[in-house]
Amino acid sequence: MTTRDPLPAHAVGTAFLSGRRGAAGIAARGRLRGRDVDKPFRGIRSQGIDLSTIRGRCVALTPLLGPEQAISHSTALVLCDAPLPSALERDDADLHVSSTGSRRKRRKGIASHRLDGAFPTTVTHDGIPIVTPATAWCQLAEYGSQRAHRLDIEHLVAVGDFLLSGTVVPGGSRIPPLCTEAELRSAIRAHAGRRGALMLSEAKGLIRAGVDSPQETRLRLLLVCAGLPEPVIHHPVMTRLGTLHPDLAYPGIRLAIEYEGDHHRTDDAQWRSDFERVRALQQAGWTVIRINKDDLNDPIRSHALLAQIRALLASG
After folding, report:
1. Are the beta carbons of 142 and 195 closer than 8 angstroms?
2. 214-315: which CATH architecture?
């Protein structure tokens, strides 16, 4: 068996145009045809990139993208770690690429789109060019309004909440939001008259900043769509533990509503922290309702939850 010379260190973990082997520091003719070199797209070679993931394939595709092209739609939102429905996060999905002008990127494994008008892009995630998150959000509504890719309004709102809120990291600090309300409004105006515009208009009035999870969004929408007053997000409550911020609250009647995912049950430290947190809120004179995913997914439990909150509001 012939032992092939290793690729230059700078070529490992990257992708490059196959017609520029010299520029990649690969002098030997035929070296790029080796079995240890991946061929993710026509005209591209790579080594050391996980091509089983959307992120890895986006890295591999980047050298093919011209200044008029960028990753878009749900693919861009996956790179932003937005909370998409699982059907749109599949690692085997085609990559969405939008282009201006007449040149569209056509390759196997790419869903090509044309983007009219101005083309704002940002470089992020290992230098991958994507359309602005606000533009990708509008494209999500356009794509999701098609029958084959039906997207619920709550999913669109959850992504919008995420874009405006940033991400909470361990320790309580928050990564800055990916866009502003002004940028979302501008993108919605640019999308007027196109498929998904009505869904965007409806979602615009429901998006809120400062939300920590898509489940918080679902809970808030459940309350609002049932005709209850809109709760306050992360209202500050002074307790013996300091200032706590319930997920949702009705301050007028001192009602706190906390969503607890499975990690609140399986993580022993988290469970003890939650226990003490709830006790501190109660000692401060607040009623606490704890919610889990069954309260959102089971219509009977959802109805009972709404009845409980409605009764507390009426008696307060």
Report:
1. yes
2. 3-Layer(aba) Sandwich (3.40)
